Amino acid sequence: MTDAARFELFSFWRTSATYRVRVAFNLKGVAPQEHNVDIDAGEQSTEAFLKINPMGAIPAVLDRADGPSSLPLTQSLAILEFIDEIYPTPALLPTEAHARARVRSLAAMLAADTHPLITPRIKKYLTGAGQFDDAAWRAWQTHWFTTGLQALEKRLSSEKETGAFCDGDTPTQADICLASIIVVMRVFKIEVADIPTVNRIMAACEALDAFAKADPLRQAGAPSY
């Protein structure tokens, strides 16, 4: 079984979490078969997809190496670590324990503390039960993007472990998560001030083909603007 035939990725062009998984696969030189799940049309809530991920969240990965009964892989950080274990080179985590913990911590600041606050299901709740209008929703997004990225900036600009990338001079899980927030901010046309180190690292990421190819606006289903 080829690598391309082995993996199926359930994805959507815009999602930050899908972007992370795309970058990881790209870094490993693996091109999974993608299935578009249109979040805007509610396809993540269909009975068929809920059998794959009961949370109705994107992305999900099927590993066909285990046969048709293989369990779906969900949660982007878990999928990133799975990919890294299956394809150890190039590594997405450092080898030393403290460095691995630091990278996981930086990644979690973005994937666990920042991204979940701006997802479609949060928007649905806030614009429904919370009675947010468009201006209030945009203010919410801007607040949490700013809170997360400025906190990350303080760490990256002050910790000696920061190099060309978040940890040293090669991209890690932390860089994938950093870039995943920035690319979605661009889709929403939101900018955060006073994050020069974050912006420098983002530029270093985008100079790599693995990141550039994963850009949301280059994916099937993305608007042409």
Topology of helices and strands:
Layout: H1 3-6, E1 7-11, H2 16-28, E2 33-36, H3 47-52, E3 60-63, E4 73-74, H4 76-86, H5 97-111, H6 120-128, H7 134-158, H8 173-187, H9 196-206, H10 209-212
Helix pairs in contact: 2-4, 2-8, 5-8, 8-9
Question: How would you summarize what this structure contains?
Answer:
With 225 residues, this protein is of the alpha+beta class.
Overview of this protein structure:
With 225 residues, this protein is an alpha+beta fold. It has 2 domains: 9-90, Glutaredoxin (3-Layer(aba) Sandwich); 97-212, Up-down Bundle (Glutathione S-transferase Yfyf (Class Pi), Chain A, domain 2), CATH 1.20.1050.10. Helices cover 50% and strands 7% of the residues. The protein has helices at residues 3-6, 16-28, 47-52, 76-86, 97-111, 120-128, 134-158, 173-187, 196-206, 209-212, and strands at 7-11, 33-36, 60-63, 73-74. Strand 1, helix 2 (16-28) and strand 2 (33-36) form a beta-alpha-beta unit. Helix 2 runs parallel beside helix 4 (76-86), helix 5 (97-111) packs parallel to helix 8 and helix 8 crosses helix 9 (196-206). The protein is globular and about 50 Å long. The model has no long low-confidence stretch (mean pLDDT 95).
